[in-house]
Write a structure and sequence with these properties.
13 helices; single chain; Phosphoglucosamine mutase; Alpha-D-Glucose-1,6-Bisphosphate, Chain A, domain 3; alpha/beta; six-stranded mixed sheet
Length: 449
C-alpha cells in the first residue's frame, strides 16, 4: 500500500495545511485509536501517552488528538513538553499501548508533525501505520458515552525521564569539575537537559531555554550552533552541547570552539566501545563522511551505510544485531541505552568516553580528518531518471577512476523538490569541487539539451 501521510518520521507539514490541520488530526487520533484498540490486549482500556515540543500549534493539535482518541474509547495521558525520546521511554516504562509526539523536530515553528511509538518504545511497524491510513478512509464515529476515553496529566514526567537519562551514565563517574553550556534550541528539553547534567555534577550554563511558542530552533540548537560556540568561548566552558527542537539530535563544541558533528561523535563512541570490548559493526548513512568509514575500518570495525533517515539506520542495526549508529546531522543511536535516538543520552555517552579516555575530544579524533565535501543541487524535470543518463554514468566511472578509492560520489534525488543532489568527497577540496561541477554540468547539459 502506497503511503499517503506517513513519511520516514511520522506525519509532518505546515500548520494549517493538510495534513497538519485540526480536523485531520482529530480523525488521525480516532483512526489510530481504533487500530490501537484492535491490537491491544483484551483486558483493560487502551491508554496512549501524548507529548509535544514547544510550538504554539502544539496546544491545538494536542486537543484534537485527545478528542480523537476519546471518541475511539482510548484513554490519554498528557505529558506536556517532552523530548521525543522521553515519550518513547515513558510509553515503555508505564506499560502503555502507544506514545505520540507532536513535533516537527528541527523545522521552524510554522511546521508541526505527529509521530507514534509502539508499546515497546519503538517506532510503529509499517503494518500498523498502513492500518491507520486505511482507517482514515472510514467515516469517523464515536463510541457510546460510557465507553469514551478520558484524559489526565502525567505527574512528574520530566522527573522520571531525568532519572532515566542519568541512569545511562556510568555509576563510577560524575561530571564534577566540568563547565558545560547546554543549548536547548528553545525546544522540548528546555526544562530537562540542564537538570540532567547539573544533577550529575556539572556547572551548567543553559541557553536556548526560554521557549515562547515561536522561537524553537530559531538561531539556537543543533541546526544553528553559532550561539553555542560563542557562549562556550565567552564562559570559558569545557564543552557545549546542542540539541534540536525535540532533542533527538546532538552537536558538541569543545573549549576551542571546534564543532563536532554526528559522524565524528559516532567514531568517538565506537572507539570507546572497542576499548571496552568487541564492536560487531557500526551503521552510518550514505552521507557519512568517508574519512569516518576508513578510520573505523582501520580499527577493525565493520561499517555499513543506510539511506538518510534515522529510521533506516535503526532498521540496519536491528537486522544485523548491532548497537551503534548515527547520521551526520547528529541523530545517534545507542541501542544498549535506549530504543531510539536521544540527544541527551548520546551526549552522556560522549562524556563517559571522555572520562574513560582522560583526553580532550579533539585528541580522540587525532588522525581522522574529514574529507572535504562539495554538493551541488541541480534542478531537473519532475520524475527525471538520472540513472538512465549514459553520459552521467560514464562521467561517474571516469571520476571514480581518478579518485582511486580516495573519495566517492553520491547522487540522489530530493524527496521534496525536483532537484538532483550531486555530492563528491575527496582528499582535497578543490578536487571535490571540480568533480562535482563536472557531474552537475553533465546533468544540466542533458536537461537543457
Amino acid at each position: 500500500m502506497k503511503r499517503r501521510y506517513f513519511g520516514t518520521d511520522g506525519i509532518r507539514g505546515t500548520v494549517g495545511k493538510t495534513p497538519i490541520t485540526p480536523d485531520f488530526v482529530l480523525r488521525l487520533g480516532y483512526a489510530a485509536g481504533i487500530v490501537l484498540a484492535a491490537n491491544a490486549p483484551a483486558s483493560g482500556r487502551p491508554t496512549v501517552l501524548i507529548g509535544k515540543d514547544t510550538r504554539v500549534s502544539g496546544y491545538m493539535l494536542e486537543a484534537a488528538l485527545e478528542a480523537g482518541f476519546a471518541a475511539a474509547g482510548v484513554d490519554t495521558m498528557l505529558a506536556g513538553p517532552m523530548p521525543t525520546a522521553a515519550v518513547a521511554y515513558l510509553t515503555r516504562a508505564l506499560r502503555l499501548n502507544a506514545g505520540v509526539v507532536i513535533s516537527a523536530s528541527h523545522n521552524p515553528y510554522q511546521d508541526n508533525g505527529i509521530k507514534f511509538f509502539s508499546a515497546d518504545g519503538n517506532k510503529l511497524a509499517d503494518r500498523i501505520e498502513a492500518d491507520i491510513e486505511r482507517q482514515l478512509d472510514e467515516p469517523m464515529q464515536c463510541v457510546a458515552s460510557e465507553e469514551l476515553g478520558k484524559a489526565r496529566r502525567l505527574d512528574d514526567a520530566a522527573g522520571r525521564y531525568i532519572e532515566f537519562c542519568k541512569s545511562t551514565f556510568p555509576n563510577e563517574y560524575d561530571l564534577r569539575g566540568l563547565k558545560l553550556v547546554i543549548d536547548c534550541a528553545h525546544g522540548a528539553a528546555y526544562h530537562i537537559a540542564p537538570h540532567v547534567f547539573h544533577e550529575l555534577g556539572a556547572e551548567v550554563i543553559a541557553i536556548g531555554n526560554q521557549p515562547n511558542g515561536f522561537n524553537i530552533n530559531d538561531g539556537y540548537g543543533a541546526t544553528a550552533p553559532d550561539n553555542l560556540v560563542r557562549a562556550v568561548q565567552a564562559h570559558r566552558a569545557d564543552l557545549g552541547i546542542a540539541l534540536d527542537g525535540d532533542a533527538d539530535r546532538l552537536q558538541v563544541v569543545d573549549g576551542n570552539g571546534r564543532l563536532f558533528n554526528g559522524d565524528e561523535l559516532l567514531y568517538v563512541l565506537a572507539k570507546d566501545r572497542l576499548r571496552q570490548g568487541e564492536v560487531s559493526g557500526v551503521v552510518g548513512t550514505v552521507m557519512t563522511n568517508m574519512a569516518i568509514e576508513l578510520a573505523l575500518q582501520s580499527l577493525g570495525v565493520q561499517f555499513v551505510r543506510a539511506k538518510v533517515g534515522d529510521r533506516y539506520v535503526l532498521e540496519q542495526l536491528r537486522t544485523r544485531g548491532w548497537l551503534l549508529g548515527a547520521e551526520s546531522s547528529g541523530h545517534i543511536l545507542c541501542l544498549d541505552k535506549h530504543t531510539t535516538g536521544d540527544g541527551i543520552i548520546s551526549a552522556l555517552q560522549v562524556l563517559a568516553a571522555l572520562k574513560r579516555a582522560q583526553q580532550p575530544l579533539a585528541r580522540l579524533l587525532d588522525g581522522v580528518d574529514l574529507f572535504p565535501q562539495h554538493m551541488i543541487n541541480v534542478r531537473v524535470p519532475a520524475g527525471y531518471d538520472w540513472q538512465a543518463n549514459a553520459s552521467l554514468q560514464s562521467e561517474c566511472s571516469q571520476i571514480e577512476r581518478e579518485l582511486a578509492g580516495a573519495g566517492r560520489i553520491l547522487i540522489r534525488a530530493s524527496g521534496t523538490e525536483p532537484v538532483l543532489r550531486v555530492m563528491v568527497e575527496a582528499h582535497q577540496a578543490d578536487i571535490a569541487t571540480q568533480c562535482a561541477e563536472r557531474l552537475a554540468n553533465t546533468v544540466q547539459s542533458e536537461v537543457s539539451g
